[in-house]
Amino acid sequence: MSNKELKRDDFKWILSMPTRWRDNDKYGHMNNAVYYSVFENVVMTWLEVEHGFNVDNESVRCFTAENGCQYHDAVRYPDELEGALRISRIGNSSVRYELGIFKKGSDTVCATGFIVDVFVDARTEKPVTVPDEFRQAMESLIT
Fold this sequence. Notes:
By secondary structure, the chain is an alpha+beta fold.
């Protein structure tokens, strides 16, 4: 299945959010950099709001090692968006999140992307094993 063929049901968690006027670029659609911001917002909301992980005050932090985005259909203000999340892999010290952006009520994906985060010691910034509490929560999103 290509990324363009992904549907809402292929993801495990959805976050609704509005677009903002400032998200549009001069061509009248959401600027490509904003897609990455949406992806980050989906992941961080799932971690911090849904699971209470306080990544700022922990001894372990997450650093993004790699990310990417494919655009399939234009999004523009005032579209209501739904950011979809799943996990394809949890390694020893890393996790690969896979994301989709949908217009509210549509099953056609507008953009797909991924983020690879590496867990590091907050002091030394050296990779560490994914903490058990993160791993257990993340397993619910594995596809």
